[in-house]
Amino acid sequence: MTVDNRFRPVMAQHSDEELHRVMRQRRDYVPEALTACVQELRERGISEAELEALEAEGRAHEAAADALAELPLESREKQLYFLFSFLMFTPLVAFFYRKYAEKGEERRSWESITMVLLGVLFYLALYGVLQRFGWQIW
């Protein structure tokens, strides 16, 4: 069964290795592109066993990416972000968020921002309390 879609000509131009990469990195492609990839591989004579192995490898790759995305920050990192948040507020927050996000570590990226913001709020509240009781900080 062949279904025509807009990705068929694109997949036909790919090498076998590129098609295998598409199957391994399924998350990066829309379902129509994956369908076109499977059809192209079948036309090139790939066996059903090889196709199933590629799909299994793709599912394993997705599971590994999901696990990586859910890794939490270590408590030492959380403490550092919190304690030194007054040093890291603006440009460094973006740097740390991007550092984790580029590696696919979504949870860590958001936790780094959260800890820095909590630290800033803590220091602002501490400053307010100290001012309330008449302590001069600077």
Give a verbal description of the structure.
Helix content is 74%, strand content 0%. It contains 8 helices and no strands. Helix 2 packs antiparallel against helix 3 and helix 7 packs antiparallel against helix 8. The longest helix has 27 residues.
Helix/strand-derived class?
mainly alpha
Q: From the alpha-carbon coordinates, what is the Rg to the nearest angstrom?
A: 24 Å
The helix count comes to 8
Helix content: over 70%
Count of extended strands: 0
Percent of residues in beta strands? under 5%
Q: Tell me the span between the first and last alpha carbons.
A: 76 Å
Average per-residue pLDDT, rounded, comes to: 83
H-E string: HHHHHHHH
Q: Mind summarizing the main beta sheet?
A: none
3D shape: rod-shaped
Low-confidence stretches: none
Secondary structure layout plus pairing:
Elements: H1 8-13, H2 16-24, H3 31-43, H4 48-69, H5 75-83, H6 85-88, H7 91-102, H8 106-132
Short structural description:
With 138 residues, the protein is an all-alpha fold. Helix content is 74%, strand content 0%.
